[in-house]
């Protein structure tokens, strides 16, 4: 399954939130999108799901316009972890994650044994076994975010779109989140596009990094090629130190805080 954005532009009123951006996501790709607040990252991610009208360009899923697929067909192929999950209603974690199987449900809407097995597996993977019967609206932000990932993994979609999935997570769970995404991509011919502010996690887990600023794509390439002092200065207007992580060898970015 291949997802492709071809020179897409998205306008809000007369302003372009995304200007002439292209992207290709193929099996085993983990693409990190990095850029300042307001750069257009979330808008781009929503467009990849076909849920934002384009001013120009096109989004293709396996060489077919995404809008030629039914919403159900899109939901079977693309799972979204949105920036802000609106999950204040009282469903249990199990019910919520089972919702990820909805796009596959039969005419009666009953879950199959396979659905239940998949839910059990994803709850274990996201370390939520103990939370199966808890209510979503009584979880911490981080626990809820893991449940949202579990639901996305439970869809078995071959494309994962994640918008700041690590924002509420503690150190260990940040790494877990991206490790699970990377493992899923490696093992199941899946592609992921992940918006993140965590440059060092992106450096460890992304196969490719895209730098966005002012609605435009500034650079795309391997973490090593793109996470450079010059490009990060251009994107964030900030002086950084880039060295190699002593264990993984991935680029490691440290802001330099000079005294005023
Ligand atoms: P990012 O995720 O990189 O922080 P967004 O894609 O959310 O950025 O937003 C890009 C730009 O588009 C911002 O200037 C934002 O204010 C604007 N924007 C986002 N959503 C809307 C909307 N629904 N209506 C009008 N402008 C929007
Ligand atoms: Mg955003």
Could you describe the 3D structure shown?
Helix 6 (171-187) links the parallel strand 7 (159-163) and strand 8 (191-195). The protein is an alpha/beta fold and 260 residues long. It has a six-stranded mixed sheet, sandwiched between helices. Strands 2-1-4-5 form a four-stranded antiparallel sheet, with helices on one face. Strands 11-12 form a two-stranded antiparallel ribbon. The relative contact order is 0.17. The chain has helices spanning 41-48, 71-77, 93-98, 113-125, 141-154, 171-187, 199-205, 223-226, 229-236; strands at residues 3-12, 15-25, 30-34, 56-61, 64-65, 78-81, 159-163, 191-195, 208-213, 216-221, 240-244, 251-255. 32% of the residues lie in helices and 27% in strands. It has a single domain (3-255), classed as 3-Layer(aba) Sandwich (Rossmann fold). The protein contains nine helices and twelve strands. The structure holds adenosine-5'-diphosphate (ADP) and magnesium ion (MG). The site of adenosine-5'-diphosphate has 10 residues, from helix 1.
Q: What is the first-to-last residue Cα distance? A: 51 Å
Low-confidence stretches: none
Radius of gyration: 19 Å
Please report which band the strand proportion falls in: under 5%, 5-15%, 15-25%, 25-35%, 35-45% or over 45%. Answer: 25-35%
Coarse structural class = alpha/beta
Name the helicity range.
25-40%
Strand order, sheet with most strands: 6-7-8-3-9-10
CATH topology type: Rossmann fold
Overall residue-averaged pLDDT value: 94
User: What is the CATH class designation?
Assistant: Alpha Beta
The coarse silhouette is globular
Beta-strand segment tally: 12
Q: Please, how many domains?
A: 1
In this entry the ligands are: adenosine-5'-diphosphate, magnesium ion
Give me the CATH architecture, please: 3-Layer(aba) Sandwich
Order of helices and strands: EEEHEEHEHHHEHEHEEHHEE
Total of DSSP H or I helical runs spanning 4+ residues: 9
- The CATH homologous superfamily: P-loop containing nucleotide triphosphate hydrolases
């Amino acid at each position: 399954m291949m997802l492709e954005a071809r020179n897409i532009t998205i306008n809000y009123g007369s302003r372009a939130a995304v200007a002439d951006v292209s992207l290709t996501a193929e099996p085993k790709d983990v693409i990190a999108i990095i850029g300042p607040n307001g750069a257009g990252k979330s808008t781009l991610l929503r467009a990849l799901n076909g849920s934002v009208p384009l001013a120009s360009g096109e989004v293709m899923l396996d060489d077919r316009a995404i809008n030629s697929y039914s919403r159900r067909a899109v939901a079977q192929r693309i799972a979204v972890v949105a920036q802000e999950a609106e999950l204040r209603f009282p469903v249990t974690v199990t019910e919520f994650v089972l919702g990820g199987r909805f796009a596959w449900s039969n005419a009666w809407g009953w879950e199959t044994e396979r659905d239940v097995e998949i839910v059990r597996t994803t709850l274990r993977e996201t370390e939520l076994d103990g939370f199966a019967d808890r209510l979503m609206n009584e979880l911490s932000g981080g626990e809820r975010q893991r449940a949202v990932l579990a639901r996305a993994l439970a869809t078995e979609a071959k494309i994962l779109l994640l918008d700041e999935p690590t924002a509420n997570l503690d150190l260990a769970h940040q790494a877990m989140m991206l490790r699970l995404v990377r493992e899923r991509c490696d093992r199941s011919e899946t592609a992921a596009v992940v918006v993140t502010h965590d440059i060092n996690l992106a450096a460890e887990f992304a196969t490719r990094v895209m730098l966005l600023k002012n609605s435009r794509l500034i650079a795309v390439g391997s973490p090593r090629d793109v996470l450079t002092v010059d490009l990060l200065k251009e994107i964030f207007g900030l002086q950084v130190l880039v060295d190699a992580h002593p264990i993984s060898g991935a680029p490691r970015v440290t802001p330099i805080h000079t005294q005023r």
